[in-house]
Amino acid sequence: MGRLLTVTGLTTEFRTERGIVSAVKNVSYHLDEGEILGLVGESGCGKSVSQLSLMQLIPTPPGKIVAGEAVFMGADLLKYEKNSKEMSQIRGKNISMIFQEPMTSLNPSMTIAKQMSEMVLMHEKVTKKEAIERSADMLSQVGIPDAAKRLEDYPYQLSGGMRQRVMVGIAMICNPKMIIADEATTALDATIQAQLLELLYEIVGRYHTALVMVTHNLGIVARYANRINVMYAGHIVETGTVKEIWANPLHPYTEGLIHCVPKLGERLLPIKGMPPSLIGRPPTCPFLSRCQYRQKSCFEENVADLTYVDGGTHATACNVRLKEAGQ
Amino acid sequence: MISYIIRRLLYAVLIVILVSVTVFTLIRLLPGDPIEILVSQDIMQDAARDPEYYARLRSEYGLDKPIPIQFINWFFKMLRGDFGKSIIRKFDILGEMKSRIVVTLSLGIVSFIISNVVGILLGILSAIRRGKIVDTVVTVIANIGVTAPTFWIAILLIYFIGFKLKLLPLYGYTLPWKDFGTSVRQSIMPVFVMALGPISMTCRQARSSILEVLNQDHVRTAWSKGLTERKVIFRHVLKNGLMPVVTLQGTMIAMIFGGSAIVETIFVIPGMGKMMVDGMLSQDYPVVQVVTLMLTFVVVLANLLVDLMYGWIDPRIQYE
C-alpha cells in the first residue's frame, strides 16, 4: 500500500478573548491508500479541528494553522491558499468529508439532484445529464430506493438516516482517494448508525478509498479501523493497530477509554476529572491531572513526543510507559 | 396555491376598504373644510360671507350629509369608476392621476430596483469581507443612510450639487421617453434621496442574514465539495440569506411610495405624492381619498408579491 497522506507537526490555534486556544498541537500521523484510520478522543480534543485543518475549512479568523505540513500525494496541502484553485481541486475531488449533522449539512433550498451533480460538474468534464445520471446511480449505491425519484426531493423530505446516506453519496461521487467521516453517525439512532457504518465500510472497500473515522466511540473504531490514533487535549497520545491498542494500551488515557466501552454485565469505569483548559497550558503531559499512574517525574518533564516502541507500529506519548519500555 | 392567492386578494380588498374608511373619517375630523378654502379664494367676496352661499356649496358637494352616508356615496361612485373632481382646482381626478401615476411609478420603480441591486451587493460585499475596510465603510454609510432624514439629504443635495456646483437641475421632472438625457439628469437627485433609506436597510439586512448563513453547516459542506467562492456565495449562501431581505422589500416599497410625498414636494415633481400633499394642504377631500387609496393598493399588492416570492425561495413553504 502506498503512502497517501503524511501530516507532520500540525498545530492549529484559535484566538479568543480569553487567550489563544491550542486546539491541535504538534500532531503527526500518516494514512495509506485504502486504509481505515480511527481518530478517537472526547469532545473538544481537537480531532475535528485537525481534520478541518487539512481541508483548510477552519473559520479564519479566529482559527489559524500556525505550523506543520500535510503532504497529500506529494504536495503540501497547507501551502495552498485557503480558497485557491488548488485547494478546490483537493476538496471533493481527492478528499471529501461527511459531517456530523445530517439535519443541517445539506442545503435546505436545493434539490438532492443539484447538490449531488454540482460536485461532479465542478470536478469533471461531463454534461448536466451525465452528472444527474451519475447522481442517481450513486444514490442507489448508498441504498436509497427509487433513486431517480428521490433526486427531485429537497432535504426536508428525507429522514436523518437518508440524508446521511446522501452525504455519503456526495462524498463518494467523484471517487476520491480519501474520505473524512467527522462523527458521521453520532447523531443517528443506534440501528441506523450500524447500517450506515456497514454501508460506509462496504463502499470504501469497493472503491479502495482511504477513510478517516473521527469519533468519540472506541467501540465503532475497533470494529472497522485498521489503525487507531488516540487524541487528547490537542495531542495524539497513542497510535497503533486496533489489536495493539485493544490488547496492550500504552497510554493511561487509552486505557481509560477502553474501560468506557460498554460491555454486557460490567460496570463502566469513567475517567475521573475534566480535560484541561487549552489556553496557556504548561508543556507537561496534558493527562497529568487525571492520570492514576502519574509519578513525581511527570510534573517536571515535558510531555514526550509520540515515540514508537520497539521500532514497531505502536507509539505512545506517555513518559512513564516509554521509560518502562526502555526508550 | 390559487385558493391562497384568492384569499390573500380578499384580505387585500378588506385592507383597502379599512384604509379608505380611516382616511375618509380622519380628514373630515380636521378643523375647516375645502368649502371654506374655496370660498376664501372666491372673487365674489360679498357672496363668500353669505352663510347661505356657503351652505349651498356644501350641499352641492354632498358635505352636509352624515359621514357614513358620504362614505357610501363615494364608495359606490368609485365602484362605478367615477373618481370625482377636485373641489378646489376642479380637475378630473382620474385624468389628472393618469399623467401623474406614470411619473411616480417610473421614479419609484427605478429607486426600488437600484435600492435592491445596490443594497444587496453592498450587503454581500460587507458580509464576505467582514471586519475589513470595505465592511467598515459600508456599515458606516448604511447607518448614516438609515438615520439621516430624507428632506435634509434632499436640501443638502439641492444646495451643493444643484445650486453651488450647478451639476444637476434643481427641480422638475421629464418622462424618460420624452427627453431621456434631461430625464436622467433630473432623476439623479430624487432617486438618490428616495433610494438611500431602502439601500441602507436592505444592505444591513442582507449583511446580517448572509453572515448568519455563512456560518451554517451546509455552507461548510459546500466548501468541502471544492466549489469556488463565487459558487458557494451565489448558489448556497445567497438564496438562503435573501429570505429576510425579501420580507423587508414589502416595507421598502411602502417607504419609497410613501416617501414620494416628500421627495416630489421638495423637487417639485408632478407626481402622485405632490398631488397628495397639495390635496392635503387645501383639504381637497376627494383628491386625498383617491390618492391614498392608490398608494394603499400599490403597497398591498407589493406585499402579496413578496409572500409569493417565499415559495420560490424556500421549498419548505407550502401555500394552503
Any overview of this molecule?
The complex is a heterodimer of chains A (327) and B (320). Chain A is α/β, with parallel strands linked by helices and 327 residues long. Chain A has a single domain, classed as P-loop containing nucleotide triphosphate hydrolases (Rossmann fold), CATH 3.40.50. Chain A has helices spanning 47-54, 85-90, 112-123, 128-141, 147-150, 160-172, 190-207, 218-224, 242-247, 252-259, 319-324; strands at 3-16, 19-32, 36-40, 63-72, 75-76, 95-98, 178-182, 210-215, 227-232, 235-241, 307-308, 315-316. Chain A is globular, with a radius of gyration of 21 Å. The model of chain A has no long low-confidence stretch (mean pLDDT 86). In chain A, 31% of the residues lie in helices and 24% in strands. An 8-stranded mixed β-sheet of chain A has the order 6-7-8-3-9-10-12-11, with helices on both faces. Chain B is mainly α and 320 residues long. Chain B has 2 domains: 12-79, no CATH class; 94-313, Orthogonal Bundle (MetI-like fold), CATH 1.10.3720.10. In chain B, α8 (150-164) packs across α9, α8 (150-164) crosses α12 (243-266) and α13 packs antiparallel against α14. The longest helix of chain B is centred in the middle third of the chain and has 36 residues, at 93-128. Chain B is globular and about 85 Å long. At the A-B interface, α2 and α3 of A face α10 and α11 of B.
